[in-house]
Structures are given as structure tokens and as C-alpha cells.
Amino acid sequence: MANNSIWVSTDLVLANTKYGENERILIMTGDSVDLIEAVADVAAEVHIYDINFSTLKRLRHYIRHENVQFFDDVYPSGEIEYDTAIVFVPKGRDFGRAQMWSAINSLKTGGDLFIVGPNKGGAKSLIKDAEEAFGNCQVMDYKKSHRVAVTRKENDHYEYPADWGAIPTEKQFLSIETEMGTIEVATQPGVFSWQELDEGTAYLLDDLVFRDAKTALDIGCGYGIIGALLASKMEHVTLSDNNLLAVSCAKATIERNNISNATVIASDIYSEFDANNQFDLIISNPPFHRGFEMQTDVTHKIITRAPDYLAAGGRLVLVANAFLKYEEVMQEAFGESGIRQKNEKFKIMEGILP
What we know:
- It is built from ten helices and 18 strands.
- By secondary structure, it is α/β, with parallel strands linked by helices.
- A seven-stranded mixed beta sheet has the order 3-2-1-4-5-7-6, with helices on both faces. Strands 12-11-10-13-16-18-17 form a seven-stranded mixed beta sheet.
- Helix 1 (3-16) runs parallel beside helix 2 and helix 4 crosses helix 5.
- It starts with a helix and ends with a strand.
- Mean pLDDT is 94; it is low at 289-294.
């Protein structure tokens, strides 16, 4: 969601909500500092959940209100009840359903769930879903192609609509066949390509060359399929992702496959690593979207900083959409680099540290 969209959504929420001084408020995003601070100035407690590790890390440093708490789980446990919950429409309808489902189940009976976001980002669809699932969802206000709606929790228990599939806050397991073997992975909405193996990863796995690598780092590991398969070929593999749902799923994938030589951590690219972390191989299928916006800066950081975390002779291998121009960045970072494979959709790039 672009910053302008966040500002519009924040204004809509603040213009249409009121908070009591003894109330506990749930906000299912950390994207709006203005909203968090404004609510914290009034309410007794404000609890923040977010899918991004980097967002929570930044907020913990920035927000100084003692009545604001941040949680590393993406969804509330249900042990705490809230008077009001706020959901900013995320990318992906299934993930949006997951957020509002967890939010409504965390409310007190009589509490209000607010859903806000841009029309083009899926606000209309999610509001319609809330009406179907909970029996009511009233649009309150509009502004610059955004809308805010409210659902009042009228029942102690709701049934998740059967035609929506499995409850999206719970992990599912998929069996996936690859050139490196068949593996069972844990997945759920909010994780990249959560319902199937994406074409880019499949293309990368088909061309993977290990050489004499003994340690590897899988950046942007998703539900952990690359790292889990690498673990069978190496002494140790580290999997990392900025997406906390992906981290949780990758840990479940490692456990499901009884892998003992792999570690999964939350990290914003290399943020949780230091110069002592040296790998023979860094591998990635990096994202090029954040929310609704296309971005390539994540891949640029993966490439330019990779030499700091590679052992002598170590390699960076990544798969990218064929139209994305990373060749010059790879050349500047490694000198010795090139395209290993390429088709109409994807290319596999490799940089070798001298």
C-alpha cells in the first residue's frame, strides 16, 4: 500500500472512530504511525500486529507510548479481548479474510471491527466478505477512492464460510514434486505463492548447481522449500524472511521433514547477520512487490551486500523475472557474474566472489 493510501486510510479511520480511555484497541498493521499514536493518546492499551519483521522492529524503536505493545505473531492468540479492531485491507483476498477473521474473534461481544482501504486494493471485496461472514458490515465514509466500513460483533461464535476453504489463520500442508525430490511444506495465505510452487522457484531448482558449497543462506525463503531441499546436500542451511508468516511456515516445513541442520530466522535481508556470518552460497527468489507497489530495491540490497556475507569463492544465485535489469548491479558487486539460464519469463543470475 503506497504511503498516500495509508494516509487516506488513516484519516478515514480517525474521522469515524472514537476510543474510550479504558478500552483496549487492536490494530492489524504497523504501517500507520499516525494512527497508532493518535489511538494511544486516548485508549488504555493499543496492541499492534503486522506481517513484516522490519515494520515491527522500526516501530519498537520509534513509538515511545508505554501503552502500546507489539507482537511477533501475525494473528492474536484469542486470549485477550478487544473493544475495537482495525484492519487495513492487505494485498491478497485470502490474507484479508485471515486478518478480519482473527480480528473479529478477538473482539468482545458488542465490539467493532473497522475495515479500511482503497477500492482498487480490494476494500469492496473484503467488506462484502465481512457482510457474508458476520451478517453485517456498514460502509461509513468515503474519501479519494477509499472507504471505511464497520462490523459489530453480535455473536460469541461465527462459522467460517465453507465455500471459502480452510480457515486461513491455520497452516496447511502441500506435497510438492521438484527436480530435487518431493517435499511436504507448510503454507497459509499471506505467504508468497502459498497454494503452489511458483514458476520462478521451480526454474531455479531445476538448474541448481551445488559445487562444493557446505553452507547456504536462503534469503526470502517463503515457506522454506529451497532451504529445506538444500539441507539434504549441505552441512548447514540458514533460511530467512522478512515475512513473519513465511518464517513460521518455514519452521513448520523444517520440522515436518525432520531436518536437523537448518535454522530459520526473521530478518530484513541481512539485518540480523554480521560479518561473522560467512556462507558458501546465498540463494534467493527475491520479491519485487511490496503491497500493491512494484519495487526492486530489495534485490539490489541482496546483490550489493552479498559479498560481505560470502566466504572466499562463495556464490550468489538468484532467479528474477526476465525483464528486470540486474546485470549491471551484479557486475559491480562481483565482477565475475552472468546469466546461467534464461527463458521468456525468468533468468538465473550468478555472482562469484573472488
